[in-house]
Amino acid sequence: LNQPTSRFEWAVRCAETIQACFITVGTSCWLLLSAPNMADLQDVGWFSWIVDAMLGYLYFDTGYEMILPIIKKSKPGYAFLAHHIVGIAAHLVARKHKLVSAYAAYIYLADAS
Quick check: 80 and 54 in contact, CB under 8 A? Predict the structure, then answer.
Protein backbone atom coordinates (compact mmCIF):
# COMPACT_ATOMS: atom_id res chain seq x y z
CA LEU A 1 0.00 0.00 0.00
CA ASN A 2 1.44 3.35 -1.04
CA GLN A 3 1.41 5.88 1.75
CA PRO A 4 0.22 9.38 0.84
CA THR A 5 3.09 11.85 0.70
CA SER A 6 1.25 15.15 0.21
CA ARG A 7 -1.76 16.94 1.61
CA PHE A 8 -3.49 16.39 -1.71
CA GLU A 9 -3.00 12.63 -1.45
CA TRP A 10 -4.22 12.65 2.15
CA ALA A 11 -7.30 14.62 1.06
CA VAL A 12 -7.98 12.01 -1.65
CA ARG A 13 -7.62 9.22 0.93
CA CYS A 14 -10.15 11.02 3.15
CA ALA A 15 -12.54 11.38 0.21
CA GLU A 16 -12.13 7.67 -0.57
CA THR A 17 -12.89 6.75 3.05
CA ILE A 18 -15.99 8.95 3.16
CA GLN A 19 -17.19 7.51 -0.15
CA ALA A 20 -16.64 3.94 1.06
CA CYS A 21 -18.63 4.63 4.24
CA PHE A 22 -21.44 6.29 2.27
CA ILE A 23 -21.68 3.38 -0.18
CA THR A 24 -21.53 0.75 2.58
CA VAL A 25 -24.13 2.41 4.83
CA GLY A 26 -26.42 3.31 1.91
CA THR A 27 -26.25 -0.19 0.47
CA SER A 28 -26.84 -1.81 3.85
CA CYS A 29 -29.86 0.39 4.50
CA TRP A 30 -31.30 -0.35 1.07
CA LEU A 31 -30.84 -4.10 1.46
CA LEU A 32 -32.31 -4.13 4.97
CA LEU A 33 -35.17 -1.69 4.44
CA SER A 34 -36.10 -1.36 0.80
CA ALA A 35 -34.68 -4.19 -1.29
CA PRO A 36 -37.37 -5.65 -3.54
CA ASN A 37 -37.87 -9.29 -4.33
CA MET A 38 -35.37 -9.95 -7.12
CA ALA A 39 -37.91 -12.00 -9.08
CA ASP A 40 -40.33 -9.05 -9.22
CA LEU A 41 -37.74 -6.31 -9.68
CA GLN A 42 -39.00 -3.36 -11.72
CA ASP A 43 -37.26 -0.50 -9.97
CA VAL A 44 -34.47 -0.17 -7.42
CA GLY A 45 -35.84 3.09 -6.01
CA TRP A 46 -33.38 5.30 -4.21
CA PHE A 47 -30.56 2.76 -4.60
CA SER A 48 -30.00 4.24 -8.07
CA TRP A 49 -28.48 7.23 -6.24
CA ILE A 50 -25.93 4.91 -4.64
CA VAL A 51 -25.03 3.48 -8.06
CA ASP A 52 -24.65 7.03 -9.41
CA ALA A 53 -22.46 7.98 -6.43
CA MET A 54 -20.22 5.00 -7.08
CA LEU A 55 -20.03 5.87 -10.78
CA GLY A 56 -19.05 9.43 -9.87
CA TYR A 57 -16.38 8.10 -7.54
CA LEU A 58 -15.00 5.89 -10.31
CA TYR A 59 -14.76 8.92 -12.61
CA PHE A 60 -12.97 10.86 -9.86
CA ASP A 61 -10.55 8.08 -8.97
CA THR A 62 -9.77 7.32 -12.61
CA GLY A 63 -8.88 10.98 -13.15
CA TYR A 64 -6.79 10.97 -10.00
CA GLU A 65 -4.92 7.84 -11.05
CA MET A 66 -4.19 9.47 -14.42
CA ILE A 67 -3.03 12.81 -12.99
CA LEU A 68 -0.97 11.63 -10.00
CA PRO A 69 1.73 9.89 -12.10
CA ILE A 70 2.17 13.09 -14.11
CA ILE A 71 2.64 15.09 -10.90
CA LYS A 72 4.99 12.50 -9.38
CA LYS A 73 6.75 11.78 -12.69
CA SER A 74 6.11 8.06 -12.30
CA LYS A 75 4.52 5.30 -14.34
CA PRO A 76 0.73 5.07 -14.33
CA GLY A 77 -0.85 1.94 -12.92
CA TYR A 78 -2.28 0.53 -16.14
CA ALA A 79 -3.92 -2.48 -14.49
CA PHE A 80 -5.62 -0.21 -11.96
CA LEU A 81 -6.83 2.11 -14.73
CA ALA A 82 -8.17 -0.87 -16.69
CA HIS A 83 -9.97 -2.04 -13.55
CA HIS A 84 -11.65 1.36 -13.22
CA ILE A 85 -12.59 1.53 -16.90
CA VAL A 86 -14.30 -1.86 -16.64
CA GLY A 87 -16.01 -0.65 -13.45
CA ILE A 88 -17.28 2.49 -15.20
CA ALA A 89 -18.64 0.40 -18.07
CA ALA A 90 -20.36 -1.96 -15.62
CA HIS A 91 -21.98 0.94 -13.76
CA LEU A 92 -23.20 2.48 -17.02
CA VAL A 93 -24.88 -0.88 -17.78
CA ALA A 94 -26.29 -0.97 -14.25
CA ARG A 95 -27.91 2.43 -14.75
CA LYS A 96 -29.90 1.02 -17.70
CA HIS A 97 -30.66 -2.45 -16.31
CA LYS A 98 -32.17 -2.36 -12.84
CA LEU A 99 -31.49 -6.02 -12.08
CA VAL A 100 -27.76 -5.35 -12.49
CA SER A 101 -28.11 -2.41 -10.08
CA ALA A 102 -29.75 -4.66 -7.51
CA TYR A 103 -26.93 -7.19 -7.71
CA ALA A 104 -24.41 -4.35 -7.41
CA ALA A 105 -25.60 -3.94 -3.82
CA TYR A 106 -24.11 -7.30 -2.92
CA ILE A 107 -20.88 -6.47 -4.73
CA TYR A 108 -20.61 -3.20 -2.77
CA LEU A 109 -20.96 -5.09 0.51
CA ALA A 110 -18.35 -7.62 -0.55
CA ASP A 111 -16.04 -4.75 -1.51
CA ALA A 112 -16.53 -3.18 1.92
CA SER A 113 -15.42 -6.29 3.77
Answer: no
Give the up-direction half-sphere exposure of residue 81: CA atoms within 13 A in the CB hemisphere: 11
Give the span between the Cα atoms of 57 and 66, in whole angstroms.
14
d(CA 20, CA 30): 15
> What per-residue confidence (pLDDT) applies to 94?
86
Measure the CA angle with vertex 32, ends 95 and 87; round to 5°: 30
Distance of CA 46 to the CA centre of its chain: 16
Picking from 70, 79, 50, 64, the residue whose alpha carbon sits closest to that of residue 15 is 64
Cα→Cα distances 97→41, 79, 105, Å: 10, 27, 14
* Residue type (1 letter), 39: A
Q: CB of 77 within 8 A of CB of 65?
A: yes
Average pLDDT over residues 30-54: 76
